[in-house]
Design goal:
Elements lengths: L25 E4 L8 E4 L5 E2 L4 E7 L1 E2 L2 E7 L8 E2 L2 E3 L6 H13 L1 E13 L5 E13 L7 E7 L12 H14 L2
Parallel strand pairs: 4-10
Antiparallel strand pairs: 1-2, 2-3, 4-8, 5-6, 6-7, 6-11, 9-10
């Protein structure tokens, strides 16, 4: 269930009710005038920071066609996205981008450069996208993908993209690398 403070998040968020330190009740409080409200324990005053989640992804082409995947999981199930996913604690963003690309597309890639970092108001995610090149494997849908596809820039299914970051990163990639 989303709290009023979290409505509009593209990927949802948990409603935390109890302090992880003492088990007391959490409530929203304004700690500093210029900061947003924070979850604070009513018993021990522990501040529960709802930090953002980092997502790593890649954009690349095969024969000048962009590789996209049709999502097989929520959110945005059935929509097209570039390979990517959450960075695990202790994993570098670069390692996560390579791992997620392999898991979702069955392709091994080498990262070339940072394409961009994308974040949006009311979303808990910060999306870090790299350009990459294929070094091995055969394009196929992984366990979280329904379908893998290659699209020339004028064939990209813009109306069927999963997220704002998918659209924004694709626009940047096309402008910088495929014009």
């Amino acid at each position: 269930m989303l709290m009023d403070h979290e409505k509009g998040h593209t990927h949802g968020a948990m409603e935390y009710r109890f302090c992880p330190r003492c088990g007391g009740k959490l409530g929203w409080e304004k700690i500093k005038p210029i900061e947003p409200e924070r979850l604070v324990c009513r018993s021990c005053e522990f501040i529960f920071y709802l930090d953002p989640k980092v997502v790593a992804g890649t954009l690349f082409t095969i024969d000048r066609s962009v590789v996209l995947l049709r999502r097989g999981v929520e959110p945005a199930m059935g929509k097209w996205v570039f390979p990517g996913g959450y960075v695990d604690r202790g994993e570098s963003v670069e390692e996560a981008a390579i791992r997620e690309t392999k898991e979702e597309s069955q392709l091994e890639v080498k990262l070339n450069s940072l394409l961009g970092v994308y974040s949006y108001p009311r979303s808990p995610n910060v999306i870090v996208v790299y350009t990459a090149e294929v070094t091995g494997g055969e394009l196929a849908a992984g366990d979280e993908s329904l379908e893998a596809g290659r699209f020339a820039p004028d064939e990209i299914p813009w109306e069927e993209l999963g997220f704002s970051s998918t659209r924004d990163a694709l626009n940047d990639y096309i402008r910088l690398y495929l014009k």
